[in-house]
Design goal:
Elements: H1 82-90, H2 94-113, H3 116-149
Helix pairs in contact: 1-2, 1-3, 2-3
């Protein structure tokens, strides 16, 4: 077993060369080392490589063109109501809290994937389930408190 499995630190990685080594091959979009079906070297960019900012020919522009390459929208983060979902998970009807927690996770996933509308929809559902869980949980705790404080005959 490699030694990094027995330590608690981060897994070591090979250093990434910052300067090109002499004699080493570094593929680029203009790499002439590709060969065609007849064995002759091909020149020019690879057909799958598009220059940055250009749409491939024949493909319509999508509504997510305004999303940067990282995938996340540039606007403010949609609230995920994670703390409220956690609170509702701690109260007696855990089912409501689990639903709220699920939707609060979907908010972050959808936002990072660039789906701002889906993130807003999941945010509304997370908030609604968390509020229902807190209200019902508070009522259950109140009923239990009243039942336990009533005099026993």
């Amino acid at each position: 077993m490699p030694p990094y499995f027995t330590t608690l630190g981060p897994r070591p990685t090979a250093p990434i060369p910052t300067v090109q080594q002499p004699g080493a091959h570094y593929p680029t979009a203009q790499s002439p080392t590709r060969q065609g079906p007849t064995g002759q070297p091909l020149t020019g960019p690879h057909p799958a490589v598009q220059p940055s900012g250009q749409q491939p020919p024949g493909e319509p522009a999508s509504p997510t063109d305004s999303v940067p390459p990282g995938g996340a929208p540039t606007g403010p983060q949609t609230p995920d109501y994670r703390r409220m979902s956690t609170l509702s998970c701690l109260l007696p009807p855990w089912l409501f809290g689990l639903a709220a927690w699920r939707y609060s996770n979907q908010v972050r996933e959808r936002y990072q994937a660039g789906d701002a509308a889906g993130a807003r929809k999941a945010s509304r559902k997370a908030k609604a389930w968390a509020i229902v869980g807190i209200v019902v949980g508070g009522l259950v705790l109140l009923v239990l408190l009243i039942a336990l404080s009533a005099p026993q005959n």
